[in-house]
Amino acid sequence: RRVLLLGEGNFSFSAALCGAQGTHVVATCYESEREAAGRGGAARSIRRLRDSGAEVVFSVDCTKLKEHFPPGNREFDRIYFNFPHCGRKAGVVKNRQLLAGFFQSCAEVLAQEGEVHVALCNGQGGTPADQPRREWHNSWQIVAVAAGAGFILSDVHPFGAETIDGYKCTGYRSQDKSFCVEGALNHIFTRSTAPLCFTPMSCKTQLGSQKVSFQVPQVLVDKIDRGFLEVNSSHPVRTIKEKLSAGLSQAFPVHNISSCLPLLHQGHPDGIFPSNIFWITLSPAEAPSTEETSQGLANTALLSHFGQDTDKNAQEGCPIPKQFYLRPSLLPHARAIIKKRAFSPGTLQVLSGPVFRKCRITPHSMPVFHELLVVVAVSRGTESSCIQMLVDNIKTTVNSLHQGVSGIKPSVSLQEATSFGAELNDFAAFEWQLGEIQHFLCVGTDPDPSGSCVGVIRTAPDELKSSELVVVSASLNLDLLAMLLCGISDWRMLWTSDRRFLRQFPEGELRLFKSFSLYPPSYEHDVSFWVPDGEEFDEVAFHTLARRVSGETVVSIQLRDNFQQPGTGRRSLCYRVTFQACDRALGCREAAEMQLHFREEMQQHLGVTLR
Predict the structure, then answer these.
(1) How far apart are the C-alpha atoms of 505 and 144, rounded to whole Å?
(2) What total number of domains does the chain contain?
(3) Residue 19 has pLDDT above 90, yes or no
(4) What is the pLDDT of residues 452-487, one digit of tens each?
(5) Helix or strand holding residue 213 (H, E)
(6) Between the CA of residue 24 and those of 53, 66, 112, 163, 362, what are the distances in Å?
(7) What is the pLDDT of residue 147?
(8) Contact yes or no for 452/442 (Cβ under 8 A)
(9) Could you tell me the residue range of the domain that residue 38 belongs to?
(10) For the FDX-ACB domain, which residue ranges apply (predicted)?
């Protein structure tokens, strides 16, 4: 591998590396050879480097690296810059500018999978790894500076000067005074994936007897067809789904619904807030006729139980409205199977797939997640024992899964819906809209053993219109389970395009996730506006717009002020919007541009007047 060292003082660090097998060292410094050789011990280290076949280059500006290395000689696997400093009494601003130019220059000469190592004195970096930690404005803000050039902090550890044979730190402010290396940290940066380009996308799905295409909502473009549950996937949501299905098959006969379930429903979902739905409009050329739609709905269960009685409307010749929406649940498909009595009592019907729900922005609120739905018809009076069997089986599977995840100890509990004391998360709150719930299934991990709701259990005594059978269903949020079992703090990481995520999960294995982007910088921007007179402000639409404009880099939206103007009664709202990426570099300039774009889109799509 090719290793580039910058800003060397006496070349003792380079000399310590030059003997490593399979490593070609290119050692450089900012001074001329004459100036550098005058430093104590430098001449000896330079001779050692040259004798070992290393390159020694002088008068190298770390902000203009491509000027010093021809195109065929630029691919460095690792770049070291130990204790960078502008010299003399340069303040934090000048040193940030030095780092900014350095990282921009590194992007032009670093191999795609390469690393940039920057050693800083304790406190300079401005990350939580510094102990004690400086105030942000008084630090070099190295992670934010690197993000501006497309780099993320992937590791940080003590510099360990005492472990480097022959190393002697030198060059403090261009004087013969060394840097203080006690508590110094080595920051390791890697290239970030590029920001996603959300070009318009169409998706095909079955609607009745024909295939139709529709425009995918922009906020879902990178999520609509990822194939996480497919056979060749090693994604943790598939691993959990397969393990749960296998566990259930030990206690029940299981029938997996393998056919492709339609993405679209039609009608008006009764009981669900319209703002929580992703509405879809088919192009005129794509929209099926009323007759085709009616027949198709009878065959493929496109319409959910929430809406109007479409079969009845079709029989009576009433027109069916051409309104479509992305499925928010798999329950309609399960209920269609039950309605047709296409099942055997006692056999679990297992359905799985992504579902789509507009929601507010929080670390655990997902506009799309993978649902595992199991439905079974049992003899009336045995539903309680059936529920207990289901829960016991899920507990056993979850406990077996955690054994491969060091440091995670889950606890699974079943709680009555009427006595559920914890605040409902967005998943549980939405499930209430779909129908009555008897039990919440919660999974807790240290330090919060009380847990988060990851599933709901329902009984439907009248579903079959039978005096002998009762339908029991359990819906599980596989994404929330994956987060809890693998220690993933942000749902967005499950959808990252960075290959370093899936590399941590060999097929069929769950492991404790280690983030490859440490201490990502965050940027706060406030926005204030007048609400249209006489209208309720739709917060879910506001959050969804923020998701779309930012490419899911908004992590928090907090109401700061709600003001009503005396006399006119006009209402003004002020929100604080926080931008932060969990898996890629996000610089302050990009965040500021997103905020400006967000303000423009708010005026156009929400009808507000900016202040």
Answers:
(1) 29
(2) 3
(3) no
(4) 889 999 988 666 666 788 889 999 999 999 999 999
(5) strand 210-215
(6) 8, 18, 18, 21, 47
(7) 97
(8) yes
(9) 2-191
(10) 518-611
The two structure tokens encoding residue 332: 């309609």
Residue 130's φ and ψ, nearest 5 degrees, are -75, 130
- Rounded Cα distance between 142 and 94, Å, is 13
Are 96 and 51 a contacting pair, CB within 8 Å? no
User: 343 is written with which tokens?
Assistant: 């099942």
Single out the residue in 503, 535, 568 at which a domain terminates: 503
Given its phi and psi angles, is residue 60 left (phi above 0), alpha (psi -120 to 50 degrees) or beta? beta
Answer yes or no: do 140 and 255 share one domain. no
Is residue 511 a part of any domain in this protein? Answer: no
Both 83 and 164 in one domain: the answer is: yes
Cβ atoms of 76 and 24 closer than 8 Å: no
Q: Residues 490, 528: one domain?
A: no
* Cβ 470 vs Cβ 378: under 8 Å: yes
CA distance 361 to 558: 10
Q: Is the pLDDT of residue 258 over 70?
A: no
Instruction: Write out the two tokens for 302.
Output: 């496109």
Q: Are residues 529 and 486 in the same domain?
A: no
* H/E element, 485: helix 478-486
Of residues 235 and 288, more confidence is placed in: 235
169 and 239 in a single domain? The answer is no
Tell me: pLDDT of 211 over 90: no
Would strands 279-280 and 76-82 be described as parallel, antiparallel, or unpaired? unpaired
Q: Which of 324, 270, 313, 309 is nearest to 291 (CA)?
A: 313
Q: Which two tokens stand for residue 282?
A: 């088919």
- In a shared domain, residues 19 and 84: yes
Closest CA to 276 of 354, 365, 207: 365
* Lowest mean pLDDT segment, chosen from 266-280, 284-298, 397-411, 572-586: 284-298
In a domain, 172, yes or no: yes
Residue with tokens 């060999």: 506
Cα-atom radius of gyration of the chain, to the nearest Å? 30
Task: Give the residue carrying structure tokens 């402010």.
Answer: 173
d(CA 109, CA 78): 10
Cis peptide before 236 (omega within 30 of 0): no
| Residues 504, 324 contacting (CB under 8 angstroms) | no
- CA-nearest of 78, 82, 158 to 116 is 78
The confidence band for 528, taking pLDDT boundaries of 50, 70 and 90, is: very high
Most confident among 155-159, 259-263, 503-507 (mean pLDDT): 155-159
What integer is the mean pLDDT of 85-107?
90
Q: Are 340 and 305 in contact (CB under 8 A)?
A: no
Residue with tokens 């939206």: 557
Nearest to 77 by CA among 185, 151, 4: 4
Peptide bond just before 132 cis, omega within 30 deg = yes
Top-ranked range on mean pLDDT: pick from 167-171, 172-176, 188-192, 387-391: 188-192
Residue 192 near residue 585 (C-beta atoms within 8 A): yes
Residues 364 and 455 in one domain: yes
- Any idea what the CATH number is for the domain that residue 54 is in? 3.40.50.150
| CA–CA separation, 431 and 499 (whole Å) | 33
Helix (H, G, I), strand (E, B) or coil at 262: coil
Q: Do 438 and 562 lie in a common domain?
A: no
